[in-house]
Amino acid sequence: MENREAKMSRKQSFIKGATILGLAGILIKVLGAAFKIPLFNLIGAEGSSYYNAPYPIYNWLLVVSTAGIPTAIARMIAEKEVEGDTHGIFRIISAIFKPMVLISVVIFAILFFGAEGISNWVGIPSSKMAFRAMAPALLFVPAMSIFRGFFQGIQKLQGFAITQIVEQLFRVVIGLGLAYFLFGRGLEFSAAGASFGATAGAIIGFVVSFSIYKYIKKKEYTLVLQTPETHPKESTWEILKQLFIISIPITIGASIMPTMNSIDLMLVVRRLNDIGVANAADLYGILTGFAVTIVNFPQILTASLQISLVPAITQLFVIYKKSNDEDDKKHLSDTVNAGIKTALIIGIPCAIGLVTLAEPVMMLLFSKQPESAVIGGEILTILGWDLIFLAVFQATTGILQGIKKQMLPAIHLAVGMVFKVVLTYVLVGMPEFGITGAAISTVVAFAVASTLNVWSLTKEEYLNVNIFKLGIKPLISGLVMGAFVLVAYNPLNSILGAKLATVVTISIAAVIYGGFIIFTKTLSHEEYDMLPGGSKLRKLAEKFGR
Fold first, then answer.
1. How far apart are the C-alpha atoms of 268 and 281, rounded to whole Å?
2. How does pLDDT run across 487-524, given as a tens digit for each residue?
3. Pairing with 255, which of 61, 116, 449, 527 sits 20 to 30 Å away (CA)?
4. Residue 475: exposure state from Cβ atoms within 10 A (0-12, 13-18, ≥19)
5. How many angstroms separate the first and last alpha carbons of the chain?
6. C-alpha span between 244 and 153 (Å, rounded)
7. Contacts with 451 (C-beta within 8 Å, 6 or more apart), sequence order
8. From CA 491, how far away is CA 487, in angstroms rounded?
9. Among residues 374, 361, 286, which one has the least CA distance to residue 40?
């Protein structure tokens, strides 16, 4: 049985890991904004539709072929770490590498040689070159996912973060540079140049991830690997069988999200055309290139939380199942609740902030496309609510995967997708909703999926999960913050101007939210200590009597 310090270390690890990935994610999104904002200001809504058209198909191919692999590798490695089977860790990596190379070649060929047919099928034939420019990335991302799974499993998420940052940096520099360089040849060429940034980033990201993997293996595992094996040796087939059992349900679940995006790609433009909307492709470009881009920025934090939760929960779950000890059960349950609470603390203010400042935020970021920014603001007023449900879904998915219930999130998201398909078809085809119908359907889909995830966790008798208890204090803090935004923005706008007023309002709102998190005692002393630098925050809270 582990001592208390070791158990506490495992509980703290997911918060620290999530923080590392979250900070990296923020930098990545800043780089992404530095890429997409000037790009969309350059190529406009039409060019944006060319650039964005390949992504649903690209992501779908990538997810279907590789999405469950990093999480499966991470979970298998986390179990080997608990068991002390170092040789088994690297046997996992060796077993999966060659099959992934074959998968990479197949999915590259599908996208590259099928570019013309796919672009015609989705109704945006001018995106053909963008499809082909992006396709070579599929040769490198699957292999890179293996090493990221390794970093995740041993909870060395610095390596995970570095590869993400390097990949994004080269994507931005090369993609944006090519977009400007090729702009004079037309929007199709400019969008294709931007798409090639994904390929450049994938190549460099693969090289860096492999280098970090070799460094960690040599520095931390060389001596152990030179000792005789003390654990049963699994064959390659046994490893692959276990990997498939874990990864296939995760892959099915992960493929549903790009499938939703593909549904938007296929249904939205056609349904808008059905009701006589002349600029249907432009509206789709605004939905995906403007509104979804903004929503994707804060969700990187909860995505990081999900990645970090899987190995931490897996290890605590394995320990509890072996010991059946009440103390181990409590540590597992407390960590599950901390993960959900952290997701809510992130998701609630982001949602309320974006909904209340939808148009000002759009105008701040896309000032050179004012008409598109106004429409994007209308969409964001609805789509912003998705951040709460997406945050809960991501955190609870990581938890369910950690306790070996990986099939449930896939089923729940599939149920949500049914709502998505039906509502998208019906609402987008109604003139009173139009493009906002796609936003409504997305919010409903994740509301359904997250509710089902939470319900499944409440059914596990060894967990004590109460979503209302976990969410009430962050919700109160978020509503107070939202009330301030509604009252303060217009006066500040008249004094400072729209752009500066938006920045100032967001800054003050963040301070108000943080203050109310302290005032309402949302975090316990132990939860403060789980945060990097949390002891200082705890002392600050104690000064205010909290």
1. 9
2. 998 999 899 888 899 999 999 999 999 888 888 888 77
3. 116
4. middle
5. 34
6. 17
7. none
8. 8
9. 286
What is the amino acid identity at position 185?
A: R
- CA dist 461 and 467 (Å) reads 15
Dihedral over alpha carbons 24, 449, 415, 260 (to 10 degrees): -30
Q: Per residue, what are the HEC states of 69-106?
A: HHHHHHHHHHHHHHHCCHHHHHHHHHHHHHHHHHHHHH
- Quick one: which of 320, 446, 381, 262 has its CA closest to 7? 320
Query: DSSP string of 301-313?
Result: HHHHHHHHHHHHH
- Residue holding tokens 């009173």? 432
**Can you list the alpha helix ranges (DSSP code H) found in 324-357?**
326-356
* Residues 478, 337 contacting (CB under 8 angstroms): no
DSSP letters for 100-136 = HHHHHHHHHHHHHHTHHHHHHHTT-GGGHHHHHHHGG
Query: Would you give the DSSP letter of residue 231?
Result: S
* Radius of gyration, alpha carbons of the chain: 23
What is the tens place of the pLDDT at every residue in 267-295? 888 888 888 888 888 888 888 778 887 88
289: left (phi over 0), alpha (psi -120 to 50) or beta: alpha
Give the type of residue at 99. Answer: P
The position carrying tokens 């938890």 is 399
**Site of tokens 């995906």:** 288
Residue keyed to tokens 């089923």: 411
Please say if the pLDDT value at position 320 is more than 70: yes
Q: pTM above the 0.70 mark?
A: yes
User: Are 114 and 61 contacting, i.e. CB atoms less than 8 angstroms apart?
Assistant: no
